[in-house]
Amino acid sequence: MEVEQQLTNKELRKNIFVIVWPVFVEVLLGALFGMVDMMMVGKIPGDTAAAVSAVGMTNQPMFLGLSLIQALNVGGTAIIARYFGAKKYNRMGSILKHVMILAMVFCVTPTAILMLIFAPEILSLLGGDATVINVGVDYFRIVTIGFIFQSLSFTVTAALRGIGETKIPMKNNIIANSCNVLGNAILIYGMFGFPALGVTGAAIATAASNLIAMVLNVRYILSGKSILKLDFKEKFEFRAEVMRDLVRIGIPTALEQMALRFGVIMFLKIVSGLGNNVYAAHQIALNVLSLSYSPAQAFGITASSLMGQSLGAKDEKLAERYTKMCQRIGLMLAIMMSASIYFGATFLAGMYTDNVEIIQNTVIALSIVAFVQPFQSHQLITSGALRGAGDTVWPLIAIFIGSCVIRLSVGYVFVNFFGWGLAGAWYAVFIDQFIRDMIILLRFRSGRWKNIRIA
Q1: Residue 215 burial (C-beta neighbours within 10 Å; 0-12, 13-18, 19+)
Q2: What is the share, in percent, of the chain residues with pLDDT greater than 70?
Q3: How far apart, in whole angstroms, are the C-alpha atoms of residue 445 and residue 455?
């Protein structure tokens, strides 16, 4: 313990980057592939706005379903990280089994059934008109099949991140995402004798890539090459205290993600009232934003892993130092990304579409995204650290206040009363992210996350 407490800043940075760089590459390339995916859809001949809007609307309920899975994964990561830090390696495989069973029985199966049956109604609820629904229903249902594979893959990846093993998930996801882009090119536009399937082709490629990622990740965890062992031949031993900790940590995270998605979906209804071209521009801006906070996601995941491991080793000071180092490095990268977005807005918008109105609205949104990004990045990193400690209630509070109260009320006023259009919507996003960041930062500085105990 004395050795860990005497780590220099250089050693801290080294330990952080051992974990963060594979996560960063994975998240960044995942976002880039998502951009390419959207760009390919945006170039489909015909109604570009309807195609982009259909994909964007489908993403929201899909993200909600995945967020429920990730809520359980947060608990699994936190517990596995603590066992890893305490050198209780023999307990980690059992935790992963508990998470997988909970996820498949209570989240994946019911969510997939609902999305398959009620796809048209869900798209309509999100504000899609007849054209968008017609384009998006088949896409929605096919991607839902991929959601099942993606959920299991995410669970394995989260467990590996808990022990700081990030290179294998990175490699596997690069392979899967590369297959997705290749599949898009073949199936969207009709290459090598395949029919041009448009948006439906994009859905098939996405579902297939999720299956590939799942197979690669599960195969690795069963191979015995990792210190995290998983053997389905061993008898499963149900442990009530594990379920209790998973639920205690996971429920606030699940509520947090539900609040976030509710806020996002209701906010999309506000924006969709501005017309398909403006809505398409909004989706493009969201797509660019998801790329820009890739470093923050990577550092948030790293902070979560190192926080859990440090607390497992009973070194609270080290946990705090790791988090502050992640915050500083992540914020510097966020500022650099913001400058790139601000000065490259027109170029970025033109990469997605040739529609002049969509480009003009996208540039307006991206000029505000550049200022949103540093606050969002900072709170993502700090929230990741709190989750690693098992402190998931305050991220829920921050999300509820910011996304469900501030963003919706201010956005509605700015768009419908002040008439500021898409710019007004993104001003509301800025205020939301600023307030969220302040809430999360105050919670971290209080130090109360140090008092959370896990069985």
Answers
A1: middle
A2: 96
A3: 25
pLDDT at position 121 is 87
Question: Do 214 and 153 contact (CB within 8 A), yes or no?
Answer: yes
Q: How far apart are CA 362 and CA 39, in angstroms?
A: 14
CB hemisphere CA count around 193 (13 angstroms): 0
Retrieve residue 108's tokens.
Answer: 């994946």
Q: What does the buried/exposed string (b/e) look like for 389-407 if buried means 16 or more CB atoms within 10 Å of the residue's CB?
A: bbbbbbbbbbbbbbbbebb
Instruction: Dig out the tokens for 63 from the structure.
Output: 């993200």
Instruction: Name every residue whose Cβ is closer than 8 Å to that of residue 222 and which is 6 or more positions away in sequence.
Output: 230, 231, 232
* Tokens representing residue 303 in the block: 């902070």
pLDDT digits (tens, 9 = 90+) for 399-436: 999 999 999 999 999 999 999 999 999 999 999 999 99
Residue written as tokens 């990004």?
Answer: 373
Task: Determine the 3-state secondary structure of 232 from DSSP.
Answer: coil
Q: How far apart are CA 76 and CA 413, in angstroms?
A: 40
From residue 413, alpha-carbon distances to 266, 276, 398, 435 in Å are: 14, 20, 21, 18
Mean pLDDT for 88-115 is 88
Reported as a single tens digit per residue, the pLDDT across 231-272 is 777 777 778 888 888 888 888 888 887 888 788 888 988 998
19-23, 48-52, 304-308, 366-370, range with the lowest pLDDT: 48-52
Residues written for the chain: 455
Can you give the pTM of this predicted structure? 0.79
Rounded Cα gap, residues 321 and 333, in angstroms: 19
Q: Which residue has the tokens 């490259």?
A: 344
- Are 240 and 324 in contact by the 8 Å Cβ rule? The answer is no
Name the DSSP letter for residue 166.
-
Distance CA 238, CA 244 (A): 11
| Composition of the chain by helix, strand, coil, percent to 5 | 85, 0, 15
Per-residue pLDDT at 287? 80
